[in-house]
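Hi V.,

You were right to ask for the full record rather than a summary. Here it is.
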Amino acid sequence: MKLHHPIGLVAMTVMLVVAGLVGAAQQQPAGPQAGGARGQGAGRGGTPPPINWPAPPLADGPIVLDTGIQHQIRLFVTKGFIQPWSMAFLPDGGILVTERPGRLRIVRNGVLDPTPVAGMAQVQAQGLAGLMDIALHPRFNENKLVYFTYHKPLGDNAGGRGGGGNAGMITLARARWDGTALADVRDVFSAIQNANASRFVFGKDGMVYMSVGIGDPPGAMRAQDPNDLAGKVLRLRDDGTIPPDNPFVGRPGYRPEIYTMGHRNVLGMAVQPDTGAIWECEAGPNGGDEINVLQPGKNYGWPVVSYGRFYAGPRVTEKPWQEGMELPLVFWVPAITPSGLAFYTGDKFPNWKNNVFVGSLRQGEVPRSGHLDRIDFNDKWEELHRESMLRELQQRIRDVRQGPDGYLYLLTAENQGALMRVEPFAQ
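Predicted structure:
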C-alpha cells in the first residue's frame, strides 16, 4: 500500500464542539498540581485564566465500554503512577513505563512494582519538562540497550532552581538493561535547552528519529531557522552521530542533524508498518493539531502556516498553507492536544486492522475531555472515519501502543496515573 499525500487532503474532517471555555494547560506540570491546571505563566500576557477541574478517580476495573465498530471493549487498569509518559515492552513480558517527574517503573503481569527501577539519570522535572519517551534498541535481544529522552539538569537550573517552565537540556540517552535495573547510562545526543517535549522512534533503517519541541512566540520562529534544532525532527545514528545521507548534510547554514523542520510540539511518533514512513502528531495551540507523514528535508510550516489560534483567541496566521510547506494528513479544530500515536496491526481487534490511534489530553481547551481517537483511511491514506472513544473516563491519554500480545495499551497523563490494557469483550 503506497502513501499518497495530495494537496486535496486539506479537505479533512473538521470536528466541531462548543469551545467557549478556554485556557487550561496542554499538559499538567510534573509536580502535584491539580489536574487540568495551566503551568507557569497562567493568566498572564492576555491568556485566559486556567480552568481548574481535576479528572475524576479512575475505576479499578475491569471497565467495559462500547465503541462504534469494534463494539464492547474491556479495560484492565494498573494504578500507582504519577504522570506516566511512555512505555516499552520487554521480551520477558515486563513493561517499562517512564514517569515525567523522573522515575522509571516496571509492570509485570499487570502489577506495578512499588520500587522505581534503579539507575535512571538525574532528570530536570520542572514545569512541563522531565523524563519523556522510551524505546528498546532494535537489536535489544543482543545488546540489551534501552533508549530514553529527558531534560538534563544544567547549571543553576538543576533541581528545579531558576529558569523557566522547561529548563534543562533535551537529551537522548541509552543504558544497558541488566534484568532489574539500568546500568552504564550515558548521553547519546543533547539538543537544546528549554525545549518542549521529545518523542523518538527507531526507523526501519535503524536510525533514531527524535523530535525537539518548541512553543509559541516569541521563540516560535526558531522552528523555521535551519541553524537551530528547535521545532525539528532529527535523524541520528544509534550512537548519536550524524548519518551522511541526512537531507542537509554539507549544506551551509543548516544543522546536519535535521530531517524535517517547522514543527511545534511533537507528542507522538510511529513507523508506518508497510512503508517505513515516519508519522508524527503534534500539538498546535488552540486548534491546529496535526498528523504529518515526514519526508526528508520538508518544512511542515509552524508558525508560518497553521489552522490554529493562540490561547488568547487570535489566529496564529491567516494562511493554512503556502508553497514550499507541507499540508497535514489529518488536522483537528478545535485542538485535542494529541499525545501518543500507534498503528494497529494485530488480530485481537479485526475491525481496527490498519487503523491509527491517537491519544488526546483535552479537547477545545476544556478539562475532562481527554479521549482516544481512532482514524481509518482508504488505500490512498485519505481519511474516512474518525471515532472518539473512552470519553466516559474523563482521563487525559498520554500514550497509546500496541503490545506484543496484540492488545492496545494506554497511559493516562494524571497525577494519579494508570496503565490500561484494552481487550475485546463479548458477553
